[in-house]
């Protein structure tokens, strides 16, 4: 079955979905952009400047929307453009391997095309007004095939 937007019954495909363990791909991905520890702290609820990386990661992530906004302001790691697709693949794969229920839902899409259709102009991860690379959709189809 082809899917052209990650809303309604297909919301589980969205990186904004809060997973059963309380995490979400959006926050994990955005946090991965950071070159500096200080920037990574901003993604966690209640994190302080005194928190070590391990202590900080035991705290819950802020909402997906908050994490996306924070991710626009951080100092990017030098290799970001080279690694961002691999990092997205890692976190999307983790989402579905950590949750058998989500994996089953992904597999239920069969061999259909998965398109992250959007209206906010994202043509790298999705498709807007018929144009875009749909990298998130391609990653989801790869993970589905690997399951």
Percent helix range: 40-55%
CATH topology: Tetracycline Repressor, domain 2
The CATH superfamily is known as YbiA-like
Q: What would the average pLDDT be, to the nearest integer?
A: 93
- Main sheet properties: 2 strands, parallel
Summing up helix and strand content along with how strands pair, one would put the structural category as mainly alpha
Q: What's the total number of strands?
A: 2
Main sheet strand line-up: 1-2
CATH class: Mainly Alpha
Query: What are the segments in which pLDDT stays under 50 over at least 5 consecutive residues?
Result: none
Could you state the oligomeric state of the chains shown?
single chain
Roughly what fraction of the amino acids lie in strands? under 5%
Q: What is the CATH architecture term? A: Orthogonal Bundle
Cα-to-Cα separation, first versus last residue: 17 Å
What are the secondary-structure elements, in order, as H or E?
HHHHHHEEH
Radius of gyration: 16 Å
Into how many domains do the coordinates divide? Answer: 1
**How many DSSP H or I helices?**
7
């Amino acid at each position: 079955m082809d899917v052209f937007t990650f809303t309604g019954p297909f919301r589980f495909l969205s990186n904004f979905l809060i997973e059963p363990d309380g995490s979400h791909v959006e926050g994990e991905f955005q946090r991965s952009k950071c070159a500096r520890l200080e920037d990574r702290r901003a993604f966690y609820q209640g994190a302080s400047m005194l928190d070590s990386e391990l202590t900080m990661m035991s705290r819950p992530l802020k909402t997906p929307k908050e994490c996306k906004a924070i991710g626009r302001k951080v100092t990017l790691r030098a290799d970001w453009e080279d690694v961002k697709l691999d990092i997205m693949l890692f976190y999307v794969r983790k989402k579905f391997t950590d949750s058998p229920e989500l994996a089953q839902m992904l597999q239920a899409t069969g061999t259909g095309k998965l398109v992250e259709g959007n209206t906010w102009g994202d043509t790298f991860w999705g498709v807007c007004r018929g144009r875009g690379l749909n990298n998130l959709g391609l990653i989801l189809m790869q993970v589905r095939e690997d399951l």
